Amino acid sequence: MSKEQEIQRHTIAVLVANESGVLARVIGLFSGRGYNIESLTVAEVDTKEALSRITIVTSGTQMIVEQIKNQLRRLVPIYKVADLTTDGPHVSRELALVKVSSTGEKRVESLRIADIFRANVIDSTNESFVFEVVGATEKVDAFIKLMEPLGLIDVSRTGVAAIARGANPL
């Protein structure tokens, strides 16, 4: 399989006008063409200019990702599209709240694993913990997988937040 045909995960940052309907148009672009969104985060980043940043994680061949970026650039009111995966070094993080219900040795083991992953206990009862874990998606995935046999009962994830390294803005 050539590099162009290999399916890869890409993190795409999109700077948009912070107005009603913009997110629906972006999501519509993906769903209308059968592209999957693995992670989606949106937040206002400039109140003065009324700008929001959408961070999308998707997978596809290089050709499909290029199509996605080109189609995004044609949407109004999108100001900038950047593929953080290919444009240079970037950092990305995800936050998850992970609820584990257990007693005895499983409860102690969940605390040990949380310590290894630098997860914080943000709520505790006699039967459960809620852990906050922050890091790369792979780290969050690994933590959740280790909590499954220890009594995992609920997970809430933020999705990926990512930004390019260096002094240049999006």
TrEMBL record:
The enzyme's first-digit EC class, named in words, is transferase
- EC assignment: 2.2.1.6
Listed Gene3D superfamilies: 3.30.70.260, ACT-like. Chain A, domain 2
Q: Which GO terms describe its cellular component?
A: cytosol
Which keywords accompany this UniProt record? Amino-acid biosynthesis, Branched-chain amino acid biosynthesis, Transferase
Cited InterPro entries: Acetalactate_synth_ssu, Acetolactate_synth/TF_NikR_C, Acetolactate_synth_ssu_C, ACT-like_dom_sf, ACT_dom, AHAS_ACT, AHAS_small-like_ACT
One Pfam family from the UniProt entry? ALS_ss_C
- Swiss-Prot/TrEMBL catalytic activity: 2 pyruvate + H(+) = (2S)-2-acetolactate + CO2
Keyword Mitochondrion present in the record's keywords: the answer is no
What Gene Ontology molecular function terms does this protein carry?
acetolactate synthase activity; acetolactate synthase regulator activity
Which residue numbers delimit the ACT domain? Answer: 11-89
Q: In which pathway does it act?
A: Amino-acid biosynthesis; L-valine biosynthesis; L-valine from pyruvate: step 1/4; Amino-acid biosynthesis; L-isoleucine biosynthesis; L-isoleucine from 2-oxobutanoate: step 1/4
Job of this protein: Catalyzes the conversion of 2 pyruvate molecules into acetolactate in the first common step of the biosynthetic pathway of the branched-amino acids such as leucine, isoleucine, and valine.
How does this protein assemble?
A: Dimer of large and small chains.
Family membership:
Belongs to the acetolactate synthase small subunit family.
- Name this protein carries in UniProt: Acetolactate synthase small subunit
Gene symbol here is: ilvH
